[in-house]
């Protein structure tokens, strides 16, 4: 036995991610996996074929340029112009990363000094806590509360101290499905300007907004030079295993993130970068059909969960539904519930409680992913109904 635990103290308690734990449980029990957020159907055939072509033609099989292949950087810039009217120079203001996960890590490592405070909404996507910790910074949670999970903007203002360096925002928000309104974003932007804060925005669900619309914070006044915008192909094109993400922002911020990114992976996903460049150029009908498909699935699963007795918090965006089990399983916490669910009825879900610094706020919240085939969602709902309504 070593005298001292091998994992450094900053990462104490971060162990195995809940997604890995719950996917392993699904594999071991053969349960339907509505835990980890990945689709059970691949994205467009034309995009998959584009990856095969790139691989066969020898494009991207050797190290691509450190900033990403020019075709993809140009396509990202064109996407930002087409959907949001934003102009970025593909050579200096766009950076390709190994998924949004690497972009978040690289941004935290590039922009934070040890001891800096980072304000972020809780429940947080789990890599946020880890990346803030790896940078030696301190996370300051701003709790989003049921039923609508809207941020308390006065509390946000109060959470900013002279040590606050950065706001880490996620909208559409995983796991709650909350989508920040333009008015909320405007207030946040004004605060960032007033207090001279950097903002990192995780927008991986930008094309999955069912109610309202997605507004990139970087489009608001005063934000261009202080915002790092992050997105990824995984969710929008249903290829989560390809790990192609990107950062857009000012030349100075992108250069800072590039500096750390170089020493994390340097580069990744060569041939897939070419395929994602083609995917981004798909017509508007692709994006609309993708959203409408997920809207149907959201409604299907929400109705099934309601029938089974869960309190359902309908998401405005993302492909997750947060539910509350307090009435259904009195006295049971979400983690215990999720660990027992596969055995009880052959379904896997994720406990939101692990995404909180104040676990009491999410003690009875359980998240279900609905990026699955309709027959799978129907079967899962039927199993839950039988298990909980007899
Ligand atoms: N941010 C959020 C909010 C997510 O849900 C995910 C999971 N897809 C990621 C980042 C990571 O994205 P990627 O798979 O592109 O690394
Ligand atoms: N984003 C996915 C989710 O929230 C998980 C990705 C991962 O496992 N890292 O379910």
Summarize the structure.
The protein is an alpha/beta fold and 390 residues long.
Any overview of this molecule?
With 390 residues, this protein is α/β, with parallel strands linked by helices. It has 2 domains: 9-43 and 285-389, Aspartate Aminotransferase, domain 1 (Alpha-Beta Complex), CATH 3.90.1150.10; 45-283, Type I PLP-dependent aspartate aminotransferase-like (Major domain) (Aspartate Aminotransferase, domain 2). 41% of the residues lie in helices and 15% in strands. It is built from 13 helices and 13 strands. It has helices at 18-29, 45-56, 70-84, 99-111, 126-134, 153-159, 182-194, 233-237, 251-261, 270-280, 284-307, 334-345, 374-389, and strands at residues 32-33, 94-97, 117-122, 138-143, 164-170, 198-202, 227-232, 245-249, 311-313, 320-324, 347-348, 350-351, 365-369. The strands form 3 sheets. It has a 7-stranded mixed beta sheet with strand order 2-8-7-6-5-3-4, with helices on both faces. The chain has a 4-stranded antiparallel beta sheet with strand order 9-10-13-12. Strands 1-11 form a two-stranded parallel sheet. Strand 3 (117-122), helix 5 and strand 4 (138-143) form a beta-alpha-beta unit. Helix 2 (45-56) runs antiparallel to helix 10 (270-280), helix 3 (70-84) packs parallel to helix 10 and helix 4 crosses helix 9. The termini are far apart. The model has no long low-confidence stretch (mean pLDDT 97). Residues 17, 19, 36-37, 174 line the site of glutamine.
Sequence-ordered SSE layout with sheet pairings:
Elements: H1 18-29, E1 32-33, H2 45-56, H3 70-84, E2 94-97, H4 99-111, E3 117-122, H5 126-134, E4 138-143, H6 153-159, E5 164-170, H7 182-194, E6 198-202, E7 227-232, H8 233-237, E8 245-249, H9 251-261, H10 270-280, H11 284-307, E9 311-313, E10 320-324, H12 334-345, E11 347-348, E12 350-351, E13 365-369, H13 374-389
Parallel strand pairs: 1-11, 3-4, 3-5, 5-6, 6-7
Antiparallel strand pairs: 2-8, 7-8, 9-10, 10-13, 12-13
Helix pairs in contact: 1-12, 2-10, 3-10, 4-5, 4-9, 11-13
Bound molecules: 4'-deoxy-4'-aminopyridoxal-5'-phosphate and glutamine.
Glutamine binds at residues 17, 19, 36-37, 174.
């Amino acid at each position: 036995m070593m005298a001292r635990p091998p994992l450094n103290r900053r990462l104490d308690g971060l162990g195995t991610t809940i997604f890995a734990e719950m996917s392993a449980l699904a594999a071991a029990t053969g349960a339907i996996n509505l835990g980890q957020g990945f689709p059970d159907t691949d994205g467009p055939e034309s995009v998959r074929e584009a990856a095969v072509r790139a691989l066969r033609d020898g494009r991207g099989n050797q190290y691509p340029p450190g900033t990403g292949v020019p075709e993809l950087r140009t396509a990202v810039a064109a996407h930002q112009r087409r959907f949001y009217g934003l102009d970025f120079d593909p050579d200096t203001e766009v950076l390709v990363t190994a998924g949004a996960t690497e972009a978040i890590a690289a941004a935290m490592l590039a922009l934070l000094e040890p001891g800096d405070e980072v304000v972020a909404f809780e429940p947080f996507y789990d890599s946020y806590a880890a990346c803030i910790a790896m940078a030696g910074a301190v996370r300051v949670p701003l709790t989003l509360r049921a039923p609508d999970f809207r941020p308390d903007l006065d509390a946000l203002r109060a959470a900013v101290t002279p040590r606050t360096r950065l706001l880490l925002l996620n909208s559409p928000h995983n796991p709650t499905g909350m989508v920040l309104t333009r008015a909320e974003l405007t207030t946040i932007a004004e605060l960032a300007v007033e207090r001279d804060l950097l903002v990192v925005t995780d927008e991986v669900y930008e094309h999955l907004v069912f109610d309202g619309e997605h507004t990139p914070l970087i489009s608001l006044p005063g934000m261009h030079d202080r915002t790092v915008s992050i997105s990824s192909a995984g969710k929008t094109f249903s290829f989560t295993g390809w790990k192609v993400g990107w950062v857009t922002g000012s030349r100075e911020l992108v250069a800072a993130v590039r500096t750390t990114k170089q020493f994390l992976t340097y580069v990744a996903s060569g041939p897939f970068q070419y395929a994602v460049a083609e995917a981004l150029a798909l017509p508007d009908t692709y994006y609309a059909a993708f959203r409408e498909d997920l809207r149907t699935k959201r409604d299907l699963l929400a109705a099934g969960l309601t029938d089974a007795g869960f309190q359902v918090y309908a998401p405005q965006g993302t492909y997750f539904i947060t539910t509350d089990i307090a009435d259904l399983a009195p006295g049971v916490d979400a983690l215990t519930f999720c660990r027992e669910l596969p055995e009880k009825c052959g379904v896997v879900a994720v406990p939101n409680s692990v995404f909180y610094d104040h676990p009491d706020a999410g003690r009875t919240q359980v998240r279900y992913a609905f990026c699955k085939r309709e027959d799978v969602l129907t079967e899962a709902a039927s199993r839950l109904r039988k298990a909980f309504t007899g």
